[in-house]
Amino acid sequence: MRSTTGWQAHGTTLRKEPITRRDLRPDDISVRVDFCGVCHTDLHAVRSHDGGVLVPGHEFTGVVIEAGPDVTAFRVGDPVAVGNIVDSCGACDMCAAGQENFCREFPTLTYNGTDRHDGSTTLGGFSREYVVREKFAYRLPSGLDPAAAAPLMCAGITVWEPLRALGVGPGTRVAVAGLGGLGHLAVKLAAAMGAEVSVVSRSAGRAAEAIELGARDVVVSTDPDSTAAARDRFDVLIDTIPVAHDLGPYLKLVAMDGTLSQVGYLGSMTVETMDLLTGRKKLSSGGSGGVAATADMLEFCAGHGITADIELLPSGRVGEALDRLERGDVRHRFVLDLSDLG
Ligand SMILES: NC(=O)c1ccc[n+]([C@@H]2O[C@H](COP(=O)([O-])OP(=O)(O)OC[C@H]3O[C@@H](n4cnc5c(N)ncnc54)[C@H](OP(=O)(O)O)[C@@H]3O)[C@@H](O)[C@H]2O)c1
Ligand SMILES: [Zn+2]
Ligand SMILES: [Zn+2]
């Protein structure tokens, strides 16, 4: 086993501790983790932690420090990016279709997952070193700032796949609900795809930043006049809201035959079917992305100069990052600099 340091949950807070990584398998690389984004999923995981080993972090960039004998795509010193899935069966129809994220055997999550070979619980990127199968690591295109690119690997790919799957392009009217980590990247990506983008936010005060990110306007979800004016307007609505909520008011914003893709809160929500019936509207979801799609997204971002808007903090301030994320006090993603772990 290899020793490193990580931020491990004790109760509902994190503590710096020694952790171990597996010895490299033939197709593994070891990554020195330089930067890891703080996703709202990490916040959900830490705040609901009730035992068991938990090291969060599932969108990171770094440098290859060792490669197993069968590794062909990477050499020591290569800049890499790793996202929120790190393995899949490779044999099912989903894997064959390049949708490893929907693997029939469930993909191995970057943390809180179960390693397919040794049954151990995976520990995430809030640590200085991560060992990963080369298939699930991506070359970080030159030109992308490694700190600001880290959030592309969860927040970015999670909104990229539905935008692509729903055929977003020039002329598509896209709404993005929730202007957080996922939401601000959805705005940038959809705008770069040529769509007409609007933000649906609780606060009118976010209009200027939404427009700066590439949106045309803001629909204020707490203002009945604003939502009434946007009724039946959007071909695609990407909903990134992190809590259970009534989908009705958001479905009302979707155009006839349009789709609401609910990628934020993952859990039970009730839907009034009349909100789907009226206008033949569709309800969908998504999470993470396949290997090929993730590589495509990184190339697209390099081509369009897209990275996250970040606030970079030393990893020693991870507790502050989680508290501020909980309060919505972030523009638009915290990224931890892991170099303070030695
Ligand atoms: N499907 C997946 O695979 C996947 C991947 C990553 C994350 N997620 C989930 O996606 C969600 C968003 O993650 P994130 O990292 O983007 O979070 P985030 O940075 O906290 O952003 C969420 C945004 O939603 C809005 N919001 C927050 N609380 C709200 C509330 N109570 N009611 C209505 N709107 C609220 C806020 O925007 P406004 O202030 O503009 O209203 C906020 O900026 C989380 O639940 C996360 O677990 C899912
Ligand atoms: Zn995430
Ligand atoms: Zn599979």
UniProtKB/TrEMBL annotation:
Domain Enoyl reductase (ER): 11-336
CDD domains linked to this entry: CAD1
GO molecular function, one term: zinc ion binding
Gene3D superfamilies to which the protein is assigned, alphabetical: Medium-chain alcohol dehydrogenases, catalytic domain, NAD(P)-binding Rossmann-like Domain
Group of enzyme by EC: oxidoreductase
Cofactor(s) in the UniProt record: Zn(2+)
Reaction(s) this enzyme catalyzes, per UniProt: a primary alcohol + NADP(+) = an aldehyde + NADPH + H(+)
Keyword annotations from UniProtKB, A to Z: Metal-binding, Oxidoreductase, Zinc
Pfam families: ADH_N, ADH_zinc_N
Keyword Transcription regulation among UniProt keywords: no
Keyword Metal-binding found: yes
Documented EC number(s): 1.1.1.2
Family note: Belongs to the zinc-containing alcohol dehydrogenase family.
PANTHER family cross-referenced by the UniProt entry: ALDEHYDE REDUCTASE
UniProt-recorded name of the protein: alcohol dehydrogenase (NADP(+))
Organism, scientific name: Lentzea xinjiangensis
